[in-house]
Design goal:
Elements lengths: L25 H6 L1 E5 L1 E5 L2 E9 H7 E2 L17 H12 L9 E5 L6 E3 L4 E5 L5 E5 L1 H9 L5 E7 L4 H14 L5 H10 L5 H15 L9 E2 L8 E2 H9 L10 H20 L10 H22 L5 H14 L12 H14 L3 H5 L2
Parallel strand pairs: 4-8, 5-9, 10-11
Antiparallel strand pairs: 1-7, 2-3, 3-9, 5-8, 6-7
């Protein structure tokens, strides 16, 4: 970063072609000037200003430059309007805070100045005063929101476009998003789970803790691990059949599904691959198959969903499949389900129903 001769952050000087934008009327110019207290923070070779600004002011003074609008030197991503609107709704609903700092780069037309004695940072209220390095969706959300909130802001000054690009890359490549598995736990702790999410969470916990669980030692609650079923995979599988358990308590859902999955593991065991139940595509495909299997158990055994009754239906099904089908490489869980449905139906001829 460029430094001024005195070692402090250098201030933007007006561009030659910006002169016309400055009103000769001092009162008008003063009305367009913002002055806020700020701290100068040093991190390695970089120094920046840290302060708090109203969200509506950020909406009026910040810009982005997606590559589609500025293919020569634009570097930021296209705006996801759906994401920005959700931020606006969150702010207007008064649910909480948006504590992450918005990172900006002051442009020349901001005429940014800093008074070291008073700690006052001054800049012009101009719609292109700052380029957003990080936080474009938040700022656009602020613009859409009816309410205004205080926002932590970091402002870099006198960065070249190359430095802005490097800073953008550093921020967006060195940060890791929170895993979806952890977010599911956080949703429970923050008491914002939906009824369906609460049911899936409780059923997962039963499979994770019960000694008779068909998925014992194959579940990973908080992170994604190879050879194990995460909460995200488990929930995706059960969501496809949630209509079968409307109003049922977790214990009942667990009892029926556990009997089904134990029967499935016995079927996989015929091919010596019972642990393949943890394969995400296979697990979700078998869950999609559950409704068809359960209907056959109900017809044959009067709705008694025991391991033995499930085996009566699924063991012949697994015998008709090849080891390479469990799962078949390259097929999605929906494609696997279609293949499995045909294999399941192939074994149920009319004479089986008549003489069972």
């Amino acid at each position: 970063m460029d430094r001024d001769p005195q070692g402090d952050l250098a201030d933007s000087s007006p561009l030659a072609d910006d002169a016309a934008a400055l009103s000769p009327d001092r009162e008008s110019a003063k009305a367009k000037t913002v002055c806020e207290k700020a701290l100068v923070v040093a991190q390695g070779k970089h120094r920046f200003y840290s302060l708090v600004l109203p969200s509506d002011l950020l909406a009026e003074t910040c810009m982005v430059e997606p590559r589609v609008d500025n293919p020569i030197d634009g570097f930021q991503r296209l705006l996801d309007q759906k994401r920005a609107k959700s931020i606006a709704r969150y702010i207007d609903a008064g649910f909480g805070t948006v504590p992450g700092a918005v990172v900006l780069s002051a442009q020349a037309r901001a005429h940014l100045t800093y008074d070291k004695e008073t700690g006052a940072l001054t800049f012009r209220k101009d719609k292109k005063a700052f380029l957003i390095i990080d936080g474009q969706h938040r700022v656009y959300g602020f613009k859409l929101a009816k309410s205004s909130v205080s926002v932590p802001v970091v402002i870099y000054n006198r960065l070249s476009r190359a430095q802005e690009c490097r800073l953008f890359m550093d921020i967006n490549t060195k940060q890791r998003p929170v895993p979806n598995e952890l977010l599911l736990d956080i949703r429970r702790l923050s008491e914002v789970e939906s009824e369906t999410e609460a049911l899936l969470h409780n059923v997962f916990d039963l499979f994770h803790t019960r000694k008779d669980s068909a998925l014992a030692n194959l579940l990973s609650p908080a992170e994604r691990k190879k050879g194990m079923i995460s909460r995200v995979t488990f929930n995706a599988g059960l969501r496809s059949i949630k209509g079968a358990f409307v109003g049922a308590p977790p214990e009942e859902v667990y009892a029926v599904l556990n009997a089904y999955l134990r029967a499935c593991r016995h079927g996989l065991g015929l091919h010596d691959i019972d642990d393949n139940i943890a394969n995400p595509a296979l697990f979700k495909a078998l869950m999609l198959l559950f409704t068809n299997v359960a209907e056959r158990v109900a017809d044959r055994h009067g709705g008694k969903y025991t391991v033995g009754n499930f085996e009566d239906v699924v063991i012949p099904f697994f015998r008709r499949l090849k080891k390479s089908d469990l799962p078949r490489a390259g097929l999605t869980h929906t494609a696997l389900h279609e293949h499995y449905s045909k294999a399941l139906s192939a074994g149920f001829l009319l004479k089986q129903w008549l003489f069972a």
